[in-house]
Amino acid sequence: MAIGLDVLIERLGLRDLADRVRFDDLSPDDGLEGPANGPEAPDNGPEGPNNGSVRPNNHNGSEGPNNGSEGPNNGAALVLHRLADRLGSGSLPEDPGTWLDRFFSLVEGSWLFGLDLGSVEPLVRAHRALTSAARTFLALPKCPPIGGGNLPAEVYVDLRDRAPGLLRAFERLLAKGVDLRERSDKGRQCVCSVLRASGPNLLLLAVTFIEPHTWSGPAAVHAAAQLLSLLRRMSDVQDDQMLLSPEPGHNRGLAKAALAILRPVLTRETWAEDESSRHVFVWLCLHIVRPSLAPHIPALLPPCLILLDDYRLPNQLLGLQCIKHIIANTPAAVLRWQDRAEVIYHAIHKQLYSRNAQLLQATYPCLLNMLTVIEEGRTTTGARPLQTGPGRTDAVVRLTLWHVGIEECEDVRLAYIQALAPLIDRLQVGAVRHMKLLLPTLISFLQAWDGPDGKTRQAALNSLMHMIRHAWPRLIHRRGELVQALLRFVCEVSGGSLEGPPLAQNVQQTLLEGATECLVLLDRASLGDVKNLLKGVKHHTDDPKLMACILAVDNA
What we know:
single chain, mainly alpha, 26 helices, 0% strand
C-alpha cells in the first residue's frame, strides 16, 4: 500500500507520528488503496489494513526520483522535497511554522540529516529546497517601481505573524543538527554537508528579521537571533564574522553563497522592489572583515554604489557605511586595481554638493579614507619620491572652503566647518597652501553669533588649533593678528557682548578653554613672544575670565 505524506498527516495526526510510522522509505505517490480512494473499509482486525497502524510502502530504490547510489533508504529526501513544495505553494495545514516545528520535534535527527545513508546528496538537495521555500514563504511584498522602497506597516502585519513560527521551526531543525554533530564524526560530516547547502538560505532568513523593522516584530527578532546563534554552533564558530568567512582550517564560510543568492535582487533594476534586501546586504557586508573581504569585492561594490547613488537619504547613508567598511578592510592595492579606487572616489566626492548635513557628516570620513588609498605615498618616503605638490586633498579643502563661504543653512555650514580639522590633519604642513583663505574664514566665524550651543565656533576653534599644530612655522608670522582675534573672542564669550542670549556655562567654558589652548600653542611656536604681547593687556582689563586666560598662557 503506497501512502503519501498528505494521507499520513490526515490519518495519523502529528502527536504520535514518531511512534507510529518511520519515514525511511516514503514514496512521492499520494495515492492510497482502499479507504483513501473510496468509502471507508471495515476494520479487519489487528492484522487488517485499518487496524490503526499505518506502515509506509517499502521501496527498493528502483522507482521514483533520487534512486541512485544513496541506497534503498531515500524517504527523508522525498519527504523534505514534498514539504518544500507544499510550503512554497502555501498549502501546508494549520500555521506552517507550527506544523513544521511539531514535525521536526517528532522525527529523529539521524533521519533528517541522513546519518544512515550511503550518500547524502539527495538529502542535501532536499534541505536546500526546503530552506529556499521558507525564504519564498517569508518574502516581503514587492514595492512599487516608482517611488518604491517603503511600504506602510499595515502591509507587513501578516508577515510579522508568520515569521516567528517558521523561524522557530528551523531552530528545532538546527538544534537536532547541533546535537548530531557532537555525537560522532559521521554525524559531523552529514551536518556539514547539509549546512553547506541550506546554511546560506537560513542565514539570509535570519538576517532578514535580525533587526527591528516594519516587517519584523520583537518575537521575530528574538527567533532570528536564536536561529543565527544555532547556525554559529552548527558551524563550530564563535562569531558572525567567522560564520561568513572563517579562518583557515574551518569549514567554508557562507558569505559567497549568500551573496550569490542576493545578486539577482540587488541589480539597478530590482534592488528597490524588496525593502529587506538592502538591509540584508548591509548586514552581510559589515560582517565580512579583513582579510576575507577582498575576494568579495566584485559582489559587494556594485550594490554599495547603487545605494549611494539613490536620492533617498537612508539608502545613501547605508551605501556610505558599506563603502567605508570596505575601504577599511581591503588592502589599498586591491582597491586601486582596475581603477576601483577612482570609481569609489568620484561616487563619494559627488556627495559633497549635497545640502543635507547628515549626509555630509557621513561623507567626509569616508572620503578621507579614500584619499588615503588614492594618495598613498604622497606624504611618505619609500620607493616612490616624496610628492609635496597640491593633490586631491587640496581640491577637497578648496571646495569645502567655497561651500563654507556661500552656504546659508547653519546645519550644512557646520558640517563643512567640522570637516576642516581632519582635512588639515591630512595635509599637515601642506595646509599653508590654503592659509590665505582659511585663516580669515576661521576668524570670521569666531566673531559671529551661531546660537546658544556654540557648535560652529567650537568647530572653528578646533580647526584653528589643528592649523597651529601643523603649520606653526608660517603662522608665527601672523601671531599678532591671531592673538588679537582670540582675545576679542574671549572678551565676547565671557562678557556676552555678541548678539543673542548668554551662553550656557558649560558651552562658555568649552569655548574659553579652546581659545586658551590656541594661545598656548601660539606661544610655544613663537618661543614666548605671545607672553610678551599679553603683558600690556594685564594692566588694561579687569575681566576675570580674560585674566584667567592670560595667566594660563603665562604658566604654560
